[in-house]
Amino acid sequence: MADVKKRKAGERTSGPQKRAAKRKHLPRRPSSPELSDVATSGENVVGTLVMDPMIDPDDSPASSEGGEDVSEGWVEGVENEDGDGDDDDVEDFGGSVEEEAEEDDVEPEAGPSTTKPKPTPNGKSKYRPPTMEELETLRQTESSGGNTFALQLDALLTSTLLSKTPPAGLKDLLATIHSHIMSLHSLPALLPPKACKRFGQAIPFPGPDVFHPLKRADVKWTLGWEKPEEVIIGGSWGVCGGYRKGKKEMGDVNVVAVMPAALFSPKDRMDFRYFHKRIYYLAIIKKSLEMLGEKSGASLSGIKVRWEDAHGDSRRPIIVISAGKEQGLRDSVEISVSAAAPGALFQPSSLSPSKSLLRDAGIPESAQTPLYSTSIIQDTLHKAHLLHLHHLSQFATVDRMVDAFLALWRIWASRRGLQRHRGGSGWFASMLLGWVMDGVLIGGSGGDRTKFRREPGLGKSLTAWAALKAAWERIGSMDLSKRPVSLCVSQDPMIPLPQILESFSVALVDPTGSINIFAEWDEGDIELLQYHARETLALLEHVDEDHFSDVFLRNLSITSGVYDDFLTIDISSIRLDTDVLEESERTTKLRRASQAISSLLRRGLTDRVKLVHCSVDQDHPDSVHVGLIYNSSSATRVMDIGPSSDSKAEGQAFREFWGDKAELRRFKDGSISESVVWSIVRPEEATTIPYQIVCWLLQRHLDISTPQVTTFSAKRSWMDILQVDAAARDAINVAGSEKLGFRPILDGYEELYKLLKSIDNELPLSILQVQPASELLRYSTTFVPHPIDIARYPTAPDCLKYVSRAEIVVQFESSPRWPDDLAAIQKVKFALMEKLAGLVRHAQRDSTINIVFDPHASEIEDSAGLEILLGSGVAFLLRIYHERERTLLDRAIEGDAPAFGTSLPLPPRRLAIPALELHVRRFIHLPRHHATIAPLHHRYPSYSSACRLLKRWFSAHMLSLKIETEAIELLMAKVYLQPGSLGCPASAPQGFVRAIKVLTEWDWKIEPIILPLSGEAGKSGRPRMDGEVQNGIVRQFEARRTKDKTYLHSAWVIATEQDHTGLRWTSGISKVVANRVRSLARATLEAIRTATLSSELDIRALFTTPLADYDVLVHLHSGILPTYAQGVHADAANWVSEARFKNARRTVYGDEIRIAFDPALAFAQDIQRLYGDTLLVFFDQHGGQVIGLLWNPDKVPSRALKPFLGYSTKPSAGEAALVTLDKDAVITEIQRLGEGLIKSIVVK
Amino acid sequence: MPKAVVPVNKGKGKSTVQHSKLYTNFLPIELLLPAPSTSSSSQSRVTSHYIYVRPHTAKSGSTSSVTASPESTVFVANIPVDASERDLRVLFGRWGVVEFVEFTGGSGANALEQAVQGLGEDDEVEQEEEEGEEESDDEAQDPINDLRDTEEDNVTSRPEPTFIGNGPKLPRRLRTRRKPALPVSVPEVEALPPLDPRSTPYGRSGSRCAHIVYLDALPLQRLMAHTGPIHLPSYGLLPQSAYSKPAKSSLKSMASPQSDPSNPTGLSYYISQYTSLRPPLGAIKAFADSSMARFDHLQSLLLKSRAKQQGAGALVDEDGFTVVVRGGRYGRTGGRGPGSTGVAVASKGFGKNLASEQDDGKRKGSGARPKEDFYRFQKTERKRQELAGLRAKFEQDKAKVDELKKTKRFTPY
Questions:
Q1: Is B86 inside any structural domain?
Q2: Sign of the alpha-carbon torsion through A291, A295, A298, A300
Q3: CB contact under 8 A, A243 and B38
Q4: Which of A138, A361, A376, A533 holds its CA 20 to 30 A away from the CA of A177?
Q5: Where are the stretches annotated Disordered (chain B) (predicted)?
């Protein structure tokens, strides 16, 4: 308060003068008297400021006046009345004259002002009265998913949409093309052979050879050329303006030349004659355009002209002209020229899809040619669809809403890799927009497909975003096979609906009621579109998060990143039984093959898959790509049960379909049915069953042998990387253990659990609970812990001898018999363990039991565990949890414990802090983490294997010491719990790829990962987190980031409901490591991306780390690493020869069974411990043969000596008495520390 | 006492300047250590390592064993990670007779034992708490410098490290050290076998320091006048092999009798560590039982002495009321107030809890709270704030999106 008054008092005197001075000075340089003027006024201010505190505020006139001022100013702020004079003073003093002045201009005309309010960063402007428009904007952004979403949408649209007025160059170009086409000379009609001869070039006539005009003898019709009836601009460009397709690349412009009716006769609809005439017509235009392009000096010179299939329809090729800079355009553009039939050329009834428009000996009378007739009709619809779009844009009230909708749809679809002619085009989007805005007729009322009812549209005032959501909902939720949809709401469609429904099983009829939009589509194409629409909506269900980048920015077009399995099938040897009819409907072999494969797989895979999507691309004319999305619960089913033995016909069909695999079986319930059984060796292999089925069916029905099918997920090497070599396993593990997976160790845990529960009365304190806290007991260790064969262990080679152990936490009841002293509690634990050891040994005669101490533990922290190796060959480490320790440690740290006469002295803080950290981690966080992660394995069958792959990846890239296994599990949990704009992965490699993708895309500097680990699931099954909790997490994160601008601490933040700071498992990850992970992930993803295209993926290469970046490489003796066999590049010779010559064995470790003994890992950890932050240590705990070291660059410069500098130094060269990091000494020291382990050291 | 040291120190510094440079009072000494040969770096069989020495500057009031004779003590910094006590003795033995070697950064002593040790002498307790900070101010205690080792802690009754080498056993000068002893009645702990296979554990690189105490002050002068590198062929090896060739390190020589079995390194260290971390169950039982007995005894001693100090019987506060407090196994009633005799609950902790509970109560109460928006101005003010908040959020989001725009995210392709 006093401060404000002070300022006010100063203003009173100085303000006006200062302003006057300012005004005078502005235009010219100040002269000296004025300068002194300013100086005096300035002095005045200073004087008052200095003086003021001395004056008692109550009796000073100046300050009381100031007091009034303050209240006035305040009232003014509230009421927003005038009071200009005082206001000026305040502003003047505040030094923000310009901004405030502007505001003053706005304020008097408050109310529905038309100017958009300009909010300024100045604090006061936030209190300005709102204008109607501003309130409107604020409210609108809230309704469209919050400010950031709306703003991001705006930003995306402004960078996408081009101005509606076409660039001058393009306008000229189109005018030239138009006038050129119109000015071509007409050619008299001739019989096809002559016409072709006249033309001089080969013409790619579409259709099977039977109908080819040059190969048929009896051709009576003629080919000619006349000036088109008209040349129009089709497509969205004319209505909605251009959009950006790529960098310096504009969306397409369609030019449609309507062929004159005089060229055709009604019979031309038959036998491809229309298409042959059409292509002849276009070929002539193309030839003349080409000539124009070659002519220098003309405005079209330099253009490139080529054929392309219109909407993937090879019957109707179009000409595509690419123009760009050479033609004086800023953005390059592709102009497609297509030929259209005049609307009234053929009788609509004669083009019905349920009729056959082909006459040939091989085609029966009753045949239908729906695709063929759709093609013809489509050529008459250019204008009608243009009018449809125009109608929509007139109808919509929101400015450029239709343009925005089309643009957003295109972006959304292209990010998902939807092909243009399979839903990615603006044309398709305009159809959907019609559905949303105008409403449709929906069939299927009362189970009858042909019974239609009207569904009204949502009207004209939708925003593009709202319309987009509505479109996803409509297309995603509709089962179009049962409930066909017609966009034609008028009563008289061109073709009666029943005829369309008769020919197509899935129908979406266009607004003119003449074609089925899905005519050419495969069932998988529709499913894929629906899948994406559904998943996008599921993503948006959770409103508290910003999903913008998931919906519009993330690129999902990498095929192996979408499907659970992605197959590339080489069709060069495919056996297809095709007739003329089939060839006319699907004119290319690739299309026919893809159709055959698609229907075959859909029938064979039944409910194992949610989606079978076949796609072909022009670059690989010999292969069909098949994407499968598994149904995670049934994909791994071992047996398919067919019809029962009673129904002969169905049984026959079943046997015909499956061949030798089909067998008649009797089931437990007494029924006898046909069935197919798939065999697997180990549990993890169940995921390859769909692949086995695919191979079997392709071989049986299409003559495609297994080597011609390239799979992504079912590759053996994915699982090989997680398994030790069979010979190594057999040398040390119990025979046949690979078939059991994690079963033995879980059984061992059960056994131990029962034992502990049963000996309760023999213990001085009873056991309260037993909790598992190990990755071994939640199916997520990189290597399955096969039980060791204790009898054969001593004779096994050294390089196999690693035995893993699972940690278990045992909590005893709390009792006054526990001492109240931390050090003494540890002693009680020792005594309890000793007691337990005796009891366990008594119950399990063949077990080996030890109490194992932690090295380097302080006296007050938990420092020992009971190590039990059961006779079955699995090992456990049992720790004792006493909850009072935490209270005592908290008191020692806070130092404000209540003191009683019986209280004992507390340990020093410097010991208590690490002890508390260890206690909380070991006894609270780890068991809780275990309890939340373990169910994921059951909920998502592929989670476990995916997690193991990711762990293998991290360790293979030598990050074992840097990234905790729990953090990796959380990362993988993110992939499953927040699959983003895709569904949950259902195969392990897919989960792995997605996790790698998360790592590349995660901008850890600005965003935390927030995981709803225990959140309840929404409608779509995706768990969500309470909004309040989430906001709290984000706030904490932002506060930390503003404090720590350089990300020195806490690079990764992975928050869950249990851990709001998000640093529980990631606190040790530094910026360097986070960057390293990201660059490794990028390289991995890039390798996968290129490999899926060329279908040669070397999985081992993904797990091979580059060693070039390390300063020092410490190579270890491989023969003595107990984990050697787990290595990515382990050489089998190391254990094969050892195992063969048992008597000539060289062993360092002798016969003793050492549990969790890994000297290399201990050595690497010791280096990190002894050298602290001087060195970063990188090591692969699974058979890594090399330790990578990086010097901390901060330690290299010379500095003055201090005894506790924290790193080894030597006097630096030069006069000054400074010291510098002694790298050589450190390296030789490491060499001494690792004597016997180190083979060589390479210093870069 | 420390004053006597300082002039010597300074004189030394000046006199050695011609020979070698001092680094913040430290004299660097280059050690030439035998390097284990590996296939890649076999040419240089000897590598250098610098240690830094300085006469010890004592801090007054410290009762460490080292400070008893500051004038003959050397402070050594940057000791190699794996140097054993014997190595230091061999090295510093060339300037005089080393009495003993103490590595700094000891373990934290048992809090209960300290409390019992302090019984009877109040000022002793204060001093005891300052232990471990005997270095002068420029040697600020490195927080990570604590060698936490259970085994060391458990054997706290051991007054100083004992030397296990084969070197000549030196006569120890009799000196009365004021180490507060525990009462004789306290039972001894049956110690566990050592958990660390090394008699001298590894220390953190660059933070490893030690005090070398000579028998007299003379070797200090010789030491500080030293120049040139020192060859230590016997580093890490047993003394009898000191004059033989340095060992070739390979798998075979690991078991060679030349290396010091009490300080193994490398693979043999890890193998023996595995064994020593798993002591026999019998030893653990004995250790746990004797430790518990000792704990019980110490606790009863402490409580007994408190009872004696604060008067037995019921606690009576200043106003004459009897204070009832929670009793334990030993105390019937009794409180330990700061300074006074027995205000039972005299803790900040409880006060805090009480206060927060009261706060909660206030918030929950549905009674006479000021009505929100009673005055019109309150309502206007609230609405203004809401609008301002909305605008602020809008601005914030806009800034955020602008930031994102700069990263070129919004490309439609």
A1: yes
A2: positive
A3: no
A4: A376
A5: 118-181, 349-378
Q: Look at residue B203 and tell me if it is in a domain.
A: yes
Domain that holds residue B404: 377-412
- The residue whose two tokens read 């006097």 is A1211
Q: Which of A252, A849, A1228, A1244 to mutate to test the interface with B (most CBs of B within 10 A)?
A: A1228
The last residue of one of the domains, among B237, B256, B277, is: B237
CA dihedral A473, A479, A483, A486 (to 10 degrees): 50
Whole-model pTM: value is 0.82
Q: Angle at the Cα of A316 (from A315 to A319), degrees rounded to 5?
A: 140
Q: Taking each helix axis from N to C terminus, what angle separates A822-843 and B281-310, rounded to the nearest 10 degrees?
A: 150
Q: Which CATH number belongs to the domain containing residue B232 in this structure?
A: 3.30.70.330
Closest CA to B35 of A1232, A1163, A1170, A1114: A1232
Query: Does the CB of B106 have a partner CB in chain A at under 8 Å?
Result: no
Joined together, the tokens standing for residue A1202 give 């201090």
Count: domains in chain B: 2
A–B interface: beta-carbon pairs under 8 A: 373
The encoded tokens of residue B270 equal 């890890």
Contacts of B131 in chain A (CB under 8 A): none
In chain A, the domains with their CATH numbers are 559-638+678-714 (3.30.70.3020), 722-940 (3.30.460), 958-1102 (no CATH), 1106-1243 (3.30.70.3030)
3-class DSSP state of A791: coil
Beta bridge partners of A1228: none
**Cβ pair A476, A416 in contact under 8 A:** no
CB-based contact A126 B278, cutoff 8 Å: no
Report the C-alpha gap between A1229 and A1234 in whole angstroms.
9
Q: List the beta bridge partners of residue A340.
A: A258
Written as one string, the DSSP assignment of A331-382 is SBEEEEEEEE--TTSS-GGGG-TTS-----TTS-TT---HHHHHHHHHTT-H
Which residue in A910, A1174, A1236 is closest to B266 by CB distance?
A1236
User: Among candidates A1153, A1228, A1095, which has minimal Cα distance to A560?
Assistant: A1095
Position B126 in a domain = no
Scanning B365-410, the segments in alpha helix (DSSP H) are 376-406
Domain boundary among B237, B254, B275: B237
Within a domain: B95: yes
Transcribe B95-129 into DSSP letters. Answer: TS-EEEEEESS-PPPPHHHHHHHTTT-HHHHHHHH
Q: CB distance from B330 to chain A under 8 Å?
A: yes
Q: Select the residue of B111, B265, B393 nearest A905 (Cβ to Cβ).
A: B111
Per-residue pLDDT of chain B (413 residues; tens, 9 = 90+): 333 333 333 333 333 344 567 787 888 888 888 877 654 444 446 888 888 888 887 664 444 555 567 788 888 988 888 888 888 888 888 888 888 888 876 555 577 777 777 664 433 333 333 333 333 333 333 333 333 333 333 333 333 333 333 333 334 443 334 445 677 778 888 888 888 888 888 888 888 888 888 888 888 888 888 888 888 877 776 654 434 444 444 344 443 445 677 888 888 899 999 999 999 999 999 999 999 999 888 888 888 787 776 655 555 566 666 666 554 444 444 444 343 333 344 334 444 444 444 444 444 455 566 677 788 888 888 888 888 888 888 888 888 888 877 776 777 77
A1158: three-class secondary structure by DSSP: coil
Across the interface, whether the CB atoms of B148 and A856 are under 8 A apart is answered: yes
- Rg value, chain A, Cα: 39
B134: Cβ contacts below 8 Å, ≥ 6 apart: B58, B59, B62, B64, B66, B67
Q: How far apart are CA A395 and CA A458, in angstroms?
A: 12
